[in-house]
Write the structure tokens for this entry.
Amino acid sequence: MQELRPPNTGSIVRTVSERAPKEKLKSELEFLTRLWTNIQRKKEVSSAPSLLHKELTITLRAVRDLFTREIDRLVIDSREEHQLIMEFIDTFAPNLRHSVELYEGREPLFDAYGIEMEINRALDKKIWLKSGGYIVIESTEALTAIDVNTGSYVGKRNLEETIVKTNLEAVKEIAYQIRLRNIGGLIVIDFIDMDREANKERIFMTLKEALEKDRAKTTVMKMSELGLIEMTRKRTRENINLFLTEPCLYCEGRGRLKSPTTICYDIFRDLERESISGEEDKVYLLVNPEIEKVLKEEERYSVMELEKRINRRIIIIPKDDFHLEQYEISLQ
């Protein structure tokens, strides 16, 4: 750190940076130095009272924390947010300017890039593999259990070859799902039993390599005789399943439902899809009364913005007999 730090400055280095590469620390220090220089410059040309600095918006925080040279592109569908990002990047990371793209297609951004499907996969317990096998992810208070199964995949030669191929395919998906869902704490992976020690070692090493891309600290134990691998992952943020869902009110908490906010944004994307065609000036939205309340209170500004984008007035109609996640859209 001594050689990275600018002259006559001090730095606070948190424990989370323990495994961070030198380039990452250097980039963070350069960002903070430019930020401080901008504050000093504003101070010199401003008269009191004047705002010199304010916390970044959630969009700019995401750009600051996640948008690095390792990211190929940043795609955004809001012209206003795109302008803010470009101004931010011009000041703090001009070398990333050409990696930012404004999406102007008619198809919703989440559909164009398959994000909707990935969100739904992140909320499902069962994830299918391309070979026909699948993994099941179950979270409890104590740990997260991940089970690997061959499913409909039977292979072409022998059973051991089929099992190894399924386990290898599952490793890549498990590493991806752990990051996507932000699963933390103790994780136990039940791979399909293999006879050869060399194959067990191969699965273990492949998993370790796949987890090297993870920014959160992970510790992986060798595969046990029962085909289990235990690992721990540092908790950094809330599990995506807890963030996007809430306890099911229909079964007294034994299952989970999408949260009202998540449902609202599902509706917004569907409204944009439905409004691509047709010339009606109104769209009727039938929803559960709880969702109506959220749309008219917490999300009222989002509804107003959507009305401007689709050039239609949205009429929200509560239906007492609708399930919380049920809604209907009608163009009349």
